[in-house]
Write a structure and sequence with these properties.
The structure is a homodimer. By secondary structure, chain A is an alpha+beta fold. Chain A contains 20 helices and 33 strands. Among the domains of chain A are: 265 residues, Glycoside hydrolase, family 65, N-terminal domain (Beta-galactosidase, Chain A, domain 5); 70 residues, Maltose phosphorylase, domain 3 (Sandwich), CATH 2.60.420. The mean pLDDT of chain A is 95.
């Protein structure tokens, strides 16, 4: 793997321009603010390979489901992430020649993503075919303070007198790369260009999402406001302003674009356009620099808690900060209707915004390092979609308020349409319940349970109770026709992970019901009434299932069996596979993959990770030893779980090897698909590998537990954690661990089974 | 089920016109000659519901595969059956009013498909909105003698003097109903209309299939050739001739269309057009009536052998003849590149032309009732596609000449694209091998083995040898990841039927190799060289598999287990299902179907049917008793197997019940989808139910075995069979069976274990 982007603790740096890498760089340098975001498309015209992408949270397109054999229960549509109005483009013509970086000589090119301040900078020096030398600088950001605001400052100088034609564009005439025959998903609403103001409103062809993008531009030449005439023009879905002027050698031109993007996701339809127009006028009263400074301060504050330092490995330091940065760019917890798409605001692949990745990987990240209200928003998101999950289960024949959360969704409706996933990869329901448990364990905050969480648990428990069946012959409950986390097996019976989490959901729901009934009888009575809970008979049924749930176990290997029939496979470890066969998903036919023993991502081990206290360390070791050699980690969500478990069982070499596979996945284009966008949700994995894996951090019953090791490749590392929103700093080096109570409350924690109490402001060293 | 079409032993009759039934009638009255065919679209303009369809064997369109998640090994395209140039249409305008049966008063309407003569007749009397009364008669057929020839005779009279504008059309401007956004699959080549001749040539947009349709028309008025002017015209892909004349009351107009359709499937591309034009000129030298008579005689001769009579049940008689008729319309064995599409030439649904239906159901039909060369063509078809089957297996990672025949194909390439079918429903390979065995058992003709059959068997055997795997733990071969004939289970392990037929294929191929080696050492040496057969090591490997193949068995129930895990399902019989849940495939979600015990079509029982002599009658009874209650027969291919087995085990009520489900499937629109076209391949099932089921007919080692019963609903039934191309007639009534040796060779047969010898011309009675 060649490291194309330069190592730096706080920046991602591209030094020199390689047009072959352009689409990858566009992904890597993506910026956003949790509500909107954008790929790092060059501002100027570019005729080389590029994937233009601008995305607005919550706005999607319902693309009609097309399958070979329609199956009952399939969703009508697939919610496509929508490429939307492109606000940061311009066309620069100098002495009649268009500036196009794929057609001119580039003397220098330097791009940096300043993660500490959340800003994208570029400096380049180019020589046009007509001989004119230009130096260009651009700075772009999405405000972390005003979430509808984004801005560009674009400066340039020429080395000789020349005539300039600079066209500033707001372009709503965009198509998704994956749309059929360049079909546009947007209809024209209105566009205007008048003086310094431009404005484009477009509406999705289906669902009528309205998006208004308003822009106010400032053009200065050597600090003087440009006084010449603009030519304002519009065409369908496009607004333009063209400035023509003569430029003297070394004079500096600065174009600033203040942009507001408002959508009907956030505003009543009738106010969307006026909101965009009015807000941009207000915002443009302050300078670009003022807005940037405010946004930078907000980023700096975020880093105060979110940062993880690594000493002795700049590349690791950079990668981890990058992953943390991108996660915070994707999700800020402002709006409980938004979630964390697998590509965030960096690409259009996959569609939908929410997978089980959110609960399994992202929530633990936010839980440790962000105020608990952010994690709570993720829980509330699911409660708001409970009705849809119940509808979804009903479509599949479930009754009595059973809920099946979708595999992929934008608004609560399922939008995946392959039966082995849509109908069978149901373990996602378990992860959603587990997230509630995890949140309460960490925060001690029961409020979500009372405000909807118990209903969510109940819907999920009811689903499992109906999804298992009693086998008369074996006198036990089995669960057939499922796809586990390892998607390289479809439609199996008795997937250990799925059955285990199903059983756990029933137990946990029972527990929560009982606690709520005791502590909050009045609220509980209301919930029971609303959900028509037949408490005795339902719970008796659950108890029978809990007591008789079949969980496959192999007495010879003394390991849990991934699912029925797994042990009858050819058990050839991955290291005996020829290089030419990898990755399997590109080299083998699907039936061969399915028949093989190879595991795409942690499955039994995912269960051990979630429920570690249910099993002794020897069980961990045996199962890890058995399954790890068959795991190909062809999902970006896999290595982190293996890394954490390896650290737990003391196999630090394996833990570090697995950590490396997740840490620089996108920065080094490990999966050869970074051009499509970033693997946002799996970025949480590298954080968890460090904090839970190396740091051995767990929070149980609101108590912090630490069991840290420092990888031998590092001098030290440190991270912060919020315990009851009380910050704690943990520093681990090769010899010692230091814990600093940065908050205002007492802190009790365990260090390798030793219990320690720390007063506010105090430090402890091992 | 309302019987819309009138019962008649030799005709299908529609008496009265119901526009709601039009599309169903269009399917039912379809005509063809094994090379081409057509739905029974009304000749005149019709603005009601209609599915226009004209099909030419071998000509198809490669529609691009579109799936959610592309899997390695998926075919690039799906071979779509092509709707092609429509030759039998006309526009009739009387006193300015277009004759359109959906807009005028119909006094009488009578349509009959005369199966004995292979001709479609229609008579109707209508009153136009302008008051003119018309009587119309049309007669249409596809010649069974000259396969490119089809013809129409259209007569009419008016009850008063009127002006006529009659436009005769050849229309190549057709689209498939299932094409996206009315996309046309045909490009214009050329069209002409001159005097009595019309001509349209079109070419498919992909693959460049050329189709030329040439027509010569004759128009007479009261027997006199029309002497007025024609107006000839053409537009893109259309040729027309318009006749304008004044008609006197009661004068009879007769329009005859002689049509030749030639395609580049049958002719070198450069001669297609000239062949169509020259042939139609030659053909039009003889009258419509002469051609019809020749074709009728050919049909009469076909019936000589093919007919099955049933006395005492006109409706059963009609249905059985209808099924036989449609099978012969679809396949005549003239061309080894053609096969039997599931909808024949009666609709465009499904695509592809060849499924395992051919070998499993259609071949046994032709084997009994047609000269053996017809069946042999079906075998040759597969040999011609062996290279593609080997390529197909290679795409899935198989080596050493292993062959996987496609699930659906037009030219040997797979064109289905759902992994659980394409990659896993591999039992089709077994049926193709079984067909070779069956053919040889029946005919004693080993020639196919030497001419390619052995290579086919070898490719199939090699596939199975690689598709199984050795399980170290269980010390046996297992086969994982398959879909059996019961498609309501996907991706199962150790499907009994598939594993059994795989093992059988290995045994049979071993036997054939050994026999060929002994009897034809020279030819064998050539085959061994060509196929790079390592005879000792390969056969040793096969022997090991044969001896150690796992075939799941339940010792408690003493039945074969459909596949691993089947017995752990909820074993609730079909008769306990609520009516509202049926049919499952319209009412239940796919996961629920998969998890349920319900069987779409015979699976274990299909194996008992194929390999009956491997099992005693008690085994048959136990397995039938166990599986039949779980079978929903939602495939049209299912009831016949159950009917035959029920008859075998003496359960005549069940046998008759199952026979009824297959007999009038289309005539009574049992599956509510006849409008899409007929279920051609399953039509063989009702024939087999009678002949193999009630008649107890088997042919083993070229010896005829009979074990007949007459259903109590019938007086008697009779059928013919060819033994070594020697006709034998079998008549069964309630008390007695009569066997007539109609041929010129001695006949030895068994009747209920009694061996009988019959001289040529002799009869025997039980």
């Amino acid at each position: 793997m060649i490291q194309y982007f330069k190592a730096d603790p706080w920046k991602i740096i591209e030094d020199g321009f390689n047009p072959e890498m352009n689409e990858i760089a566009e992904s890597i340098f993506s910026i956003g603010n949790g509500m909107m975001g954008q790929r790092a498309n060059l501002e100027e015209d570019f005729s080389g390979k590029t994937l233009q992408g601008t995305y607005v949270g919550g706005v999607y397109y319902p693309d009609k489901t097309r399958v070979g054999w329609w199956k009952n229960g399939y969703p009508e549509y697939f919610a496509k992430v929508l490429n939307s109005t492109y606000w940061s483009g311009l066309t620069l013509v100098i002495n009649g020649e268009i500036v196009d970086l794929s057609k001119i000589k580039i003397a220098s090119f330097y791009r940096e993503l300043d993660m500490f301040n959340g800003v994208l900078n570029r400096r380049s020096t180019v020589t046009l075919n007509n001989g004119i030398q230009l130096s260009i600088e651009s700075t772009r950001f999405y405000s972390l303070v005003n979430k509808e605001y984004s801005a560009l400052r674009y400066r340039f100088k020429a080395n000789q007198n020349c005539s300039i034609e600079l066209t500033n564009i707001i372009d709503g005439n965009v198509v998704n790369k994956d749309s059929n025959y360049d079909e546009s998903f947007w209809n024209e609403v209105s566009q205007e260009s008048r003086d310094k103001e431009m404005f484009v409103a477009v509406k999705t062809k289906k669902l009528d999402w309205l998006l208004a993008t308003a822009c106010i531009s400032e053009l200065t030449i050597d600090g003087e406001t440009h006084s010449g005439q603009n030519k304002n023009s519009t065409s369908s879905k496009i607004a333009q302003t063209t400035y023509k002027f003569d430029l003297k050698s070394k004079q500096e031109v600065i174009l600033v674009k203040h942009v507001i993007s408002s959508s009907s996701f956030h505003h009543p339809e009738e106010t969307v356009i006026s909101n965009a127009q009015n807000t941009v006028r207000k915002m443009s009263a302050s300078s670009f620099e003022t807005h940037l400074e405010m946004s930078s301060k907000a980023w700096n504050a975020k880093w105060e808690m979110a940062d993880v330092t690594i000493e002795g490995d700049v590349s690791a330091q950079q990668a981890l900060r990058y992953n943390i940065f991108q996660l915070h760019q994707t999700y800020c917890g402002d709006d409980p209707r938004l979630n964390i798409g697998p590509k965030g605001y960096t690409g259009e692949k996959y569609g939908g915004s929410t997978y089980w990745d959110t609960e399994a990987y992202c929530l633990p990240f936010f839980l440790v390092s962000s105020p608990s209200k952010i994690s709570k928003q993720l829980l509330i998101y699911r409660y708001k979609q409970l009705d849809r999950a119940i509808e979804n289960a009903e479509k599949l024949g479930f009754t009595n308020g059973a809920a099946l959360y979708p595999m992929v969704t934008m608004n609560g409706e399922e939008c995946h349409n392959e039966w082995e996933i849509t109908f069978e990869e149901i373990h996602r329901n378990g992860a959603i319940a587990y997230a509630i448990y995890h949140y309460i364990e960490h925060t001690g905050d029961n409020s979500y349970l009372l405000e909807g969480g118990l209903e969510v648990l109940l819907g999920i428990a009811r689903f499992w109770a109906q999804r298992v069946h009693w086998t008369e012959k074996k006198q036990r409950y089995e669960m057939h026709g499922v796809t586990g986390p390892n998607e390289y097996e479809n439609n199996v019976n008795n997937n250990w992970y799925t059955s285990y989490i199903a059983k756990w959901c029933l137990k946990y729901t029972k527990e929560c019901i009982s606690n709520t009934q005791n502590k909050f009888p009045k609220i509980f009575a209301e919930i029971a009434k609303k959900t028509k809970l037949s408490i005795e008979s339902e719970i008796a049924n659950w108890r029978h299932i809990i007591e008789n749930m079949y969980l496959p176990y192999d007495p010879e290997e003394q390991v849990f069996v991934q699912h029925d029939g797994f042990m009858e496979k050819e058990l050839i470890p991955v290291n005996q596979l020829a290089e030419i066969d990898r990755p399997l998903n590109q080299k083998w036919s699907w039936d061969r993959i399915l028949r093989s023993v190879y595991i795409k991502q942690a499955d039994v081990l995912q269960g051990l990770y979630f429920f570690e206290d249910d099993f002794d360390i020897e069980t961990h070791k045996r199962n890890f030893k058995f399954y790890e050699p068959f795991t190909v980690h062809e999902s970006s969500l896999s290595p982190c779980v293996h890394s954490i478990l390896a650290a737990k069982i003391g196999n630090m070499d394996k833990a570090y090897e697995m950590y490396l596979r997740t840490a620089r996945l996108d920065l080094d284009n490990y999966n050869n698909d970074t051009e499509d966008g970033l693997h946002i949700t799996s970025m949480a994995g590298s954080y968890l590998s460090v904090v839970q894996g190396f740091g051995g951090l767990r929070v149980k019953n609101q108590t912090l537990h630490l069991n840290p090791v420092c990888p031998k490749h590092w001098k030290s590392y440190s991270f912060k954690i919020l315990m009851s929103n009380n910050p704690v700093n943990i520093i681990v080096n090769q010899n010692q661990t230091k814990v600093q109570n940065l908050g205002e409350k007492n802190l009790t924690f365990t260090y390798k089974n030793q219990t320690i109490s720390l007063n506010p402001g105090d430090n402890w060293e091992s």
